[in-house]
From TrEMBL:
Matching InterPro entries: Dodecin (IPR009923), Dodecin-like (IPR025543), Dodecin-like_sf (IPR036694)
Gene3D superfamilies: Flavin-binding protein dodecin
Biological source species: Microbacterium ureisolvens
Name the record gives this protein: Dodecin domain-containing protein
A Pfam family annotated for this UniProt entry: Dodecin
Domain of life: Bacteria
Length: 68
């Protein structure tokens, strides 16, 4: 039997929501092991003072829980 934990992470990108999601998952996989599911729960865009766009994707990640 397995137990999984779910956390929220937010990735950012100057080019797309997909790239922001990829960045969030890639970065989280550096410290979390046995990632199982990534679900995009929210997407938004921050508009900078100069008009530059910053795409953000909020991701729920589930990973296998390993008690300490």
């Amino acid at each position: 039997m397995s137990v999984y934990r779910v956390i929220d992470v937010i990735g950012t990108s100057a080019s797309s929501w997909e790239e922001a999601a990829r960045e969030a998952i890639s970065t989280a996989s550096g410290s979390l092991h046995d990632l199982r599911i990534a679900e995009v729960t929210k997407q938004d865009v921050v508009v900078g003072d100069d008009g530059a766009l910053l795409f953000r994707s909020r991701i729920q990640l589930s990973f296998k829980y390993a008690p300490e």
